[in-house]
Amino acid sequence: MIDEDTIVSIFLIVFFLFTFPLVIVGFVWLMRKWMKRHREKQAFQRVIQSGIRSIDQMDGHQFEFFLVQLFKELGYRSVKETKRSNDFGADLVMEKEKKIVVQAKRYGYKQRVGIQAIQQVFAAIPFYQAQEAWVVTNSFYTASACKLAQACGVHLLDRWRLQQFIVNVNPEMTAQKVYENVEPARRNCPLCGSPLVVRSHQENTRRFFGCSSFPNCRHTEPLNAS
Question: Counting Cβ atoms within 10 Å, is residue 7 exposed (0-12), middle (13-18) or buried (19+)?
């Protein structure tokens, strides 16, 4: 007959064999959940630190101004904006080991940059006698744009890569400072033709355009309106 101690030992062995895998599975599940939350927290911190939400509210001129300051702090030389009109496909020109033309696309978060931006900046290479072309956006690119850029050798910086650049540099001229202090490009009211002026909400720091003919004309629009 099997004595009592042997029965207890067998029971403990069986219990251990059945429960140990469950403990391991539970531990792995908890670790994955913790790592996911940690990555989400890091991603949220990068969003806050990069100021990407301020960039989302900028107009095109403010975005270009911000990129000039950012690339200067990244060590690029002779960083300058091109003319507002007839820019021949480039918004910025800069140099490091090579001369680079850059097209800046400040888009809505859900709006994708298409192949036209790739075509334009690629065409700017011979005009500015550059050796490289970039497109930088606060959004993302269509599949067609990515495919064309790869074929043409155009470098694409999307929302995530832009945030990485900003976080790594931690520029003195932050996106929030640019948004709050740099005047957007001038535009006229689409209703009455009067100049639009920059105003601020009383409840928050968000800026917007209002018609200078107020109260006769009450048209308003965000700075980042197309």
Answer: exposed
